[in-house]
Structures are given as C-alpha cells and as structure tokens.
Amino acid sequence: MSVEDIVAIVPPDKQPSYFEAVLPLVVLTILVGGSVALFGLDAMEGPLQVAMLLSAMTASIIVLRKGHSWEAVSEASRRGVASVVSAIFILLAVGGLIGTWNMSGTIPTLVYYGLAVINPNWFYVASLIVCAVISLGIGSSWTTVGTVGVGLMGLALLSGVSPAITAGAVVAGAYTGDKLSPLSETTILAAQLTNNDLYVHLRYQALVSAPAFLIAAIGFIALGFAAAPPTAGQDLIYSELGALDQLFWISPLNLLPLVLLIVLSFRKVPAALALMISSLFAGVLACFTQPQAVLLMASESASGPIASYIAGVWQVMATGFDAQTGIGPVDDLVSRGGMASMLLTIWLIIAALAFGSILDEFGFLSKLVTPLLTRAKHTGSLIATSVCTAIGLNVVTADQYVAVVLPTRLFRVEFQKRGLASVNLSRAVSNGGIVTAPLVPWNSCGAYMAAVLGVPTLAYLPYAIFNYMSPAIDMVYGFTGFRIARITEEEAAQAAIPSVDEA
After folding, report:
1. pTM for the predicted model, two decimal places
2. Whether 104 contacts 255, CB under 8 Å
3. Of 181, 173, 172, 177, the residue nearest 129 (C-alpha)
4. Exposed, middle or buried by CB within 10 Å (0-12, 13-18, 19+), for 4?
5. Half-sphere CA count of 497, side-chain side, radius 13 A
6. Are 297 and 315 in contact (CB under 8 A)?
7. pLDDT tens across 366-422, in order?
8. Could you tell me if 441 and 48 are in contact, meaning their C-beta atoms sit under 8 angstroms apart?
9. How far apart are the C-alpha atoms of 151 and 351, rounded to whole Å?
10. What is d(CA 7, CA 297) in angstroms, rounded to the nearest whole number?
C-alpha cells in the first residue's frame, strides 16, 4: 500500500490541510515543553497526561470541523486504547509482581547477594550485559526490565552508584537482546511485514546492533571508572545487609519465583499470564519463607492465620509492600510495587494512544509523511526518512507497533523501486521504531520503563546509549552505502506493477 492509498482512505474533502495536520503537533510540543518546564521530572505525575488529552482535544476539534462525527472520533480513540490492552495487563501484573517479589524476599535476596560481590567500577557494563543476555533468551525487554532490572536498580540504590546511569544500562541491554532475539514479537513483526526470513532479518540487524552495543559497553565502562566513588561506604553497606537479613530470611529458595518466570517465558506463556503466575507463586512462597513480612501487611480485620496470610498477599498485590527498617535506602528498595502504582502510567498511555489514533485514522500522519517521501531522492535520505519517520511516530502516536507498521506500509514499494532489498526497510523501522520507544516519556514503552525502574525517562535517556546509537549507525550505513542489500533490476521493476491485493 502506497502513501496515496493511505491518504485515499479519508475522503479528499475531509482530509486535513498541512496547517491543520501540523497544529496538533505544535500544541503537543508547547504543552509538553510547558509541563516539563513547570514541573520538571514530576511532569509524569499528571501534567503530561493533561497535555496529551488537550492535544487530543485539539485534533478532535479539527476532525469535527472537517465533517467527521464525534462517534467516529470516539471509535478511533477506542481502537487506539484497545490496541494496548495487553500492555495494560502487563503493567498491572508487573506492579503485583514487584510487590510480592519484595515481600517474598526475591528482590532483597538478589540485592543481598549482589551487594556482597559488587564492584562499582564494572557495575554499569555488567548491568548492560546481564540484561542483554536475559532479554535475548526470553525475547522480552519488558519482562527483563520488570524482573532483573528491578533487582539491579535495588543494587544501585543501596551501593551508591547512579540510578539514572543504571536505568540507562538496563534499558539498553534489554532492548539489545529484544531486537536480536528470534522470540521477540516486535522483531518477528518487522520481519513478517517486509516478507523477510526471520534469521536473515536478525543477521542484518546484528550488523547495526553489534557496533551499537560495543559503543554502549565502552561508554558504560568509561562511566564506571570516571564517576565519583560511590557515596555508600562499607559500613553503610554492612548495615544495609544487616537490615535485609533481619527483615527477610535470605535464601536461594527466594529466587524460585524468578526461575519460574524464566521457565514460563521460555515456554512462550503470554507475558501478562506468566508475570501474574510468578507473582501469585511468590505470594504463596512468602507465607512459608517470610511469614512475618506477610503478616505485617495483613489487614487488622482478618480473623485467623489463614485469612491473615491471604489478606497480606492480596494487599501487597494491590498496593505494594511497605517496610520500616529505619534505614532509608532499604525502605525505599522494598517499599514498592502494587497494581495501584501503575495507574498513573496507564493514564498516560491511554491519553497518548487516544491522541495518536486520531492523528493516524483521520489522515494527519499521512499528510505529513507524503512530502518527506517525495524529498527522499537518494538511498541515504530514504533510509534516514524511514528511521526518522519511525522515531517521529513513537513521539506522536506513543506506540512502537504503529512506529513499525506504518513506515513499513508507507515505504515498502519505494524501497523496491529503488532496487533496495526489503531487509533494509525492516532494519530501518526496527532501529527507528523499536529501540527508540523507551526514550519517549509518554510512549507506552517509556512510561513502562520509568514506572518499573523508578527513574524518569528523561533522566535515563542520555545513558541509554544503544538506543540512540542504533538509528544513528543505520543512517550512516545508508549514506555511505555500507552493508546495504540490493535486489535485481527485474525485482525492482516488479514493484511498479500493483499486486492483486493492491490493485
């Protein structure tokens, strides 16, 4: 399907003008900039959500002026929100999991063992590598960040290394593995949309991902040795270890929920279901291994020991675990989680997707992309346009799937006409659409990472080195012609003949 086909979906008399297509984006830029200027990193606590909704209202007014009905606007928003229902379930499941994993001692045990062997100078690059390996194995950046990433953030908090740099390393590592894993749904999607063999796609991805990962690793090694010494002295670390040992029974048995989650992930159990099963298992395990922690959270109205244990697990899944050890870093580490902690993030995702759906379905985006495509005269500019369009869609639509699907539909025929193999397109949309999604605060991925890691997106963004080096390297390849796959003239000529589906 070409740009003209997509534009034609909206009747000509109801298509927005260029000014009308740009106006909602201008409003979004002003409101988002204003919210960050006024509230700083606290903008995600509500101001950003309001900015997204006001931008959606601006687009809705334009749509109504063009003759569309309010029912059509509502239906477009509904479809956009419906597309992330699975992501919302994952968010809620992760909230419950963080709470029960804290109560069962899973996260405290990871941190306890980590503190005993930590070398602060190598901590950042170790976080990068560990998250890359786990994500490569299970094919999910979200699951990696919500489990191993949370433990690494706890280590950073208690050992005195930078939480922002650690979060950047976790995100970079998780997306490295996700982009190169044959189990990753976004990677499979990019290959399928461009009719490429999955492993051919992965091989071409690695040509960009390998140097981007190497640059990130060197950067984190430099940050580890150049940063000021950790603020946590040895005495404080010993006191933190003692507080954890006093509050929880530290044992390898506490890692069973993590083992269960890894097994379920390898067996391709849906992410939300696997996370919820692991969360419930951790809650049950806590009743035997950490009974004092469960009873600490039990409702006073619960009558009898069994009811108290049920109430404790139930409460933690809803609102998170709460501990009062008297040592601030330890309390901050374990007093987290609960499905309620994800509600602000869900609010942001819903508002952003409602806005992005209106722009997509009523022709705003295609109106803006058309002149970009006509100006991309050379291979380098075409690849750069594809990458930048995917990045822009991450910003505007707040959804990485749209950022992968739409550029593929828009540019597929143009790549073939110019003799470029479709694997170049699948690599471009992956580098622009997948890895940059966690760098946008209101994107579902960026909102998720910030909520789970406890670090604002804008704080870890400078340190997610892999995530911005990947699109940069891909564009360099395009302009230099390095590692650009081409097709024969006959195959390129076929692109000019519409298929039965396109005719």
Report:
1. 0.76
2. no
3. 173
4. exposed
5. 6
6. yes
7. 788 778 777 878 899 999 999 999 999 888 877 788 788 778 877 888 888 888 999
8. yes
9. 30
10. 56
